[in-house]
Amino acid sequence: MTARIGVVTFPGSLDDRDTQRAIRLAGAEPVALWHKDKDLKQVDAVVLPGGFSYGDYLRAGAISRFSPVMGSVIEQAKAGLPVLGICNGFQILTEAHLLPGAMLGNDHLHFICRDQKLRVENAGTAWTGDYTAGQDIHIPLKNMDGRYVADDYTLDKLEAEGRVVFRYVDFNPNGSLRDIAGITNEAGNVVGLMPHPEHAVEPLIGTGRTDGLLFFTSILKKLVGA
């Protein structure tokens, strides 16, 4: 039996179906989860997808953080459940305090959509085991509130503990401090990033590469080998 990976749909999610497809292409079973349901349906991992949940009112992810499903996600993530937050999902993870720091509006005050070069800094998380530390990959990016910020103490701690998972290369698209594109928690089971790996899983779409597929093969191997 293959791994079952839940994908949460919030009001305003727009990449949930793409994420389900990426999971299926990797060989796992995607399981649709609804934001109002506390039941995670015994999934082995959860993805919070990209979009503009609740229209980004108040702050991006601020309302979704209080959805009934998030109570279960927070509880189980603290117990070791692998959780991936993509774009809006990353914003939700910071609002839920599963990841440190915050996401602010892009420093240029515009929505940005581009293919983005990233460097893999940590290949030891539940979601990055199929990458190599130092590897450069190309993943589509699209956001309005993608600027990662934290105080110096938090940033220094993330760097010292190897918890910066991805860094922007050649161009910082949103003003994120220290070019941070993605981070992980101390246990390595929760990862958040602004670029969209689910849009780089087939040569026909996205960057024309499959660099993003390794997120989903990584977690599949982690779960099947557990």
Automatic annotation (TrEMBL):
UniProt xrefs under SUPFAM superfamilies: Class I glutamine amidotransferase-like
Pathway field: Purine metabolism; IMP biosynthesis via de novo pathway; 5-amino-1-(5-phospho-D-ribosyl)imidazole from N(2)-formyl-N(1)-(5-phospho-D-ribosyl)glycinamide: step 1/2
Active-site residue list: 87, 196, 198
EC number: 6.3.5.3, 3.5.1.2
One protein family per Pfam: GATase_5
PROSITE patterns reported for this sequence: GATASE_TYPE_1 (PS51273)
Keywords of the record: ATP-binding, Cytoplasm, Glutamine amidotransferase, Hydrolase, Ligase, Nucleotide-binding, Purine biosynthesis
Main localization category: cytoplasm
Source superkingdom: Bacteria
Chemical reaction(s) catalysed: N(2)-formyl-N(1)-(5-phospho-beta-D-ribosyl)glycinamide + L-glutamine + ATP + H2O = 2-formamido-N(1)-(5-O-phospho-beta-D-ribosyl)acetamidine + L-glutamate + ADP + phosphate + H(+); L-glutamine + H2O = L-glutamate + NH4(+)
Cell compartments where the protein resides: Cytoplasm
Subunit architecture: Part of the FGAM synthase complex composed of 1 PurL, 1 PurQ and 2 PurS subunits.
Function per UniProt: Part of the phosphoribosylformylglycinamidine synthase complex involved in the purines biosynthetic pathway. Catalyzes the ATP-dependent conversion of formylglycinamide ribonucleotide (FGAR) and glutamine to yield formylglycinamidine ribonucleotide (FGAM) and glutamate. The FGAM synthase complex is composed of three subunits. PurQ produces an ammonia molecule by converting glutamine to glutamate. PurL transfers the ammonia molecule to FGAR to form FGAM in an ATP-dependent manner.
Name of the featured protein: Phosphoribosylformylglycinamidine synthase subunit PurQ
Lineage: Bacteria, Bacillati, Actinomycetota, Actinomycetes, Kitasatosporales
Gene name of the encoded protein: purQ
